[in-house]
Amino acid sequence: MSKSKIGVLVMSYGTPESLDQVEAYYTHIRRGHPPTAEQLEELTSRYEQIVGGFFPLRENTNRQVAALEETLNRQYGHDELEFVCYQGLKHAHPLIEEGVEQMAKDGISQAIGVVLAPHYSVMSVGGYIQRAQAKADELDLSMSFVKDYHVHPKLIEALVNRVQDALSKFGPIETVRDQVRVLFSAHSLPARILELNDPYPDQLLETSRAIADRVGLSQWQFSWQSAGQTSVPWLGPDILDTLRTVVAEEQVKQVLVAPVGFVSDHLEVLYDLDIEAQALARELDIHLERTASLNTDPLYIDTLADVVNQQLERK
């Protein structure tokens, strides 16, 4: 008897695989408009500074997808059911549409989509789902989606562990958790999402509050990072402005950044925080640490496997 195969489309933002792909990647982000020479040089320079030609996000994503497929089949697969994971990227190959098309070519008739981002916004996760659903409809593929998982118990546990580990770099947790300012952060989005009653900001606060409550933090706040360089306003305050403010107004000397909106090491973590924010911290004479990224943490992979299986059971 042949197994029933469930396709799992694992979606993420995507990244170039090498420096010579940066221009094509940036052009896709800019909806077909090539970057200026100055813009291209700036982005390429950022990649060179963090990776020297090796792009960790792509490899991290590959490992996350492989770990998810193994975990799904170990925990929820059986003699009559097998999970097969595919990638679908927003701005690099295989694109979301290409991932859906590959599932159809492989004879998959039922699929579930999940994004490597725990928090829902119509401008982020919503866009991924829309693209995947349109292609699935075109190919007559039955597909449903995980929209968010921002307060899943295992996700919160994984993030709590990271905050505690990072706090220990400042001293005994019982002492420093009331002294270190913890800045939870996520990728900013255009401020117009507020007019849409988009759940993104509230979900991020829910995640942050759940972690703070578990760790027993009294000195924490939320800040945004990595806003796009466009003519429209983005959600703020930016984390660099927040650092300046807490130092100038409250004489804060120890800061922990917990980028809870990101699940992997990539440009917004390795450059925006590890290089740009650290440079400012040295200028402000403060001790700045950040939490380790989730990457293939078993608790995170278990979270993904659980929400995918829950989605399957709803069908």
TrEMBL record:
It catalyses: Fe-coproporphyrin III + 2 H(+) = coproporphyrin III + Fe(2+). It is an enzyme of class 4 (lyase). Its main location: cytoplasm. The keyword Ribosomal protein does not apply. The keyword Nucleus does not apply. InterPro entries: Ferrochelatase (IPR001015), Ferrochelatase_AS (IPR019772), Ferrochelatase_C (IPR033644), Ferrochelatase_N (IPR033659). GO terms for biological process: heme biosynthetic process. Fe(2+) binds at residues 187, 268. Keywords: Cytoplasm, Heme biosynthesis, Iron, Lyase, Metal-binding, Porphyrin biosynthesis. GO terms for cellular component: cytoplasm. Pfam families: Ferrochelatase. Its EC number is 4.99.1.9. Pathway: Porphyrin-containing compound metabolism; protoheme biosynthesis. Transmembrane segments: none annotated. It is found in: Cytoplasm. Fe-coproporphyrin III binds at residues 13, 30, 46-47, 128. GO terms for molecular function: ferrochelatase activity; metal ion binding. It comes from the Bacteria. Belongs to the ferrochelatase family. HAMAP family: Ferrochelatase. Involved in coproporphyrin-dependent heme b biosynthesis. Catalyzes the insertion of ferrous iron into coproporphyrin III to form Fe-coproporphyrin III. This is Coproporphyrin III ferrochelatase. It comes from Paenibacillus selenitireducens.
